[in-house]
Amino acid sequence: MAAIELDGVTKRFDGVTALQEVDLTVEEGEIFGFLGPNGAGKSTSINILLDFVRPTEGRAEVLGYDSYEDSTRIRERTGVLPEGYDVYDRLTGLQHLEFAIESKDADDDPHALLDRVGLSEEDAKRKAGGYSKGMSQRLVLAMALVGEPDLLILDEPSSGLDPNGARMMQEIVREENERGATVFFSSHILGQVEAVCDTVGILREGELVAKDTIEGLREAYDTGLTLTVTVGGTASQIDDGVAAVRALDAVSDVRADSDAITVTCEGDQKMAVLNALEDAEVSVEDFETEEASLDDVFSSYTERQEAEA
Amino acid sequence: MSWQAVARKDFQDASRSYLLWGLTIGFIALVSLAAAVLGWVQSDPTSTDILGLLHMLFQYIVPLIAIAISFGAIVNERDSGSLKILLSLPHSRTDVILGKALGRTAAFVVPLVLGMLVPAVALLVVGVEFEAAKYFGYLLLATLFGVAFVSVATGMSATFESRFRILLSVFGFYFLFNILWRAINTASFVIVLTLSGQWPSWMPLTVQETLRVFQLLSPTGDFQILRQALMNDVLFASEVGEGLPDFRLQLGAMAMLLVWITLPILIGILRFEDADL
């Protein structure tokens, strides 16, 4: 069964289309990264899953339940870190968690959860109104973890977190996934998605423009591997080397200057290139490889629109 | 039942605000002041005399306090975004409104009850003649009266997204029913009588009856009917003296107060149910 199923979902606000016939399936047990620039409709999609807003057309199912009819059932089994929330200023961190535990009819130890997200006992006794953005984010993440949810929906989970916090977030996402939870999180920051997600969906101007595994997206975009080799030797040796590398099948581009050769080739051809250089008696002093980052893939999907326009 | 969790959290939140305890102290001060003033101008006032003076203030400020406590119930959470935390947890929208209404009711009732209980003890200690039935009866009626305004304000808070429209409609309600109602009614009867020379014969109700119906419509009118009955020892009595509200009228007033307590919340629930948050 799919954990999340959007079926032809369109959402218009006062004539402005926020989502356009989005079909999306997230399988159980997946870590799904929902990518897109700000304003692409990520939060609107999540708001529909949580029944904060209703679709103009189409329907959504979460954990097999209709997002509108059975919203409470869905939220019983889902942990949510929403976007654009605020904590209750006058309640302490601990009271927030106790409220979440009571609301979910769970028996978690609030102190263990606070510890897990890196909030100290002292923080927990303070009123949340005095928390920094990062601390609030940790607190609401702890609330989302209450009751071992089957699904975690995290909207821009790393916003406001420092690098340590972002790492903690990734660790928790992995741990929760290993426990068996499906994780659905949105981000406009690619690094996090790349690091933890099995599958990625890219949303642009309210339309789902791609959905694939990270590997699949990379292959589809296929910029291959860029290999920069620092070399020594005479100019003629280097010329021979360049010629030898050019002769290789899987190499698409070779550029040389006085002490470096830059090769663009298929991902698994690194050793073939280096061997060809050695054979041509070029001394290889150092080399660097660079894979097509998801950044490139992401911008190729989200910026195409501007290029077309 | 998750509205209980929402109500508890809401009251917990409110109980940490200065407003709640400021109001408690304010009520205590007001009752004590009324007692002191009356003790100064009149020898040996009873607790009922004090209530009489107090009522002149209470009929205007109790609704205002109820409104101040409640009008932000939903809209504040909507504006700040804490509503998203609330609705990320397994609470239905109906539970949220019910819980909020209950939490705000508690945040209104606690200061009012404490504010009248503490001075009651003081009155007993200094030996004022204390008519407990009337004192606590009045407290109960004032509570119901105020809760009607808590309900109106909470209902509006759930109905409208804009704080301005909420305040406009809530204060509109207050001025219409609490300040202007009597004047409007009197004026319209004077106009009708002046124009036609007499009460039109096709009206199914007499002048008196029609005035009573209009009085019943307003929560302030209901409060007045019940208070008048209480103070004259005829609350829900089958036989009442001349000029006092009879049993049927009292029952109607109580029923209308309960309508004002429930109906605005129901409307708020219906409107909130359909809203995009």
UniProtKB/TrEMBL annotation, chain B:
<feature type="transmembrane region" description="Helical">
    <location>
        <begin position="53"/>
        <end position="75"/>
    </location>
</feature>
<dbReference type="Pfam" id="PF12679">
    <property type="entry name" value="ABC2_membrane_2"/>
</dbReference>
<feature type="transmembrane region" description="Helical">
    <location>
        <begin position="106"/>
        <end position="129"/>
    </location>
</feature>
<keyword id="KW-0472">Membrane</keyword>
<feature type="transmembrane region" description="Helical">
    <location>
        <begin position="251"/>
        <end position="272"/>
    </location>
</feature>
<keyword id="KW-1133">Transmembrane helix</keyword>
<feature type="transmembrane region" description="Helical">
    <location>
        <begin position="166"/>
        <end position="195"/>
    </location>
</feature>
<dbReference type="GO" id="GO:0005886">
    <property type="term" value="C:plasma membrane"/>
</dbReference>
<feature type="transmembrane region" description="Helical">
    <location>
        <begin position="18"/>
        <end position="41"/>
    </location>
</feature>
<protein>
    <submittedName>
        <fullName>ABC transporter permease subunit</fullName>
    </submittedName>
</protein>
<keyword id="KW-0812">Transmembrane</keyword>
<dbReference type="GO" id="GO:0140359">
    <property type="term" value="F:ABC-type transporter activity"/>
</dbReference>
<feature type="transmembrane region" description="Helical">
    <location>
        <begin position="135"/>
        <end position="154"/>
    </location>
</feature>
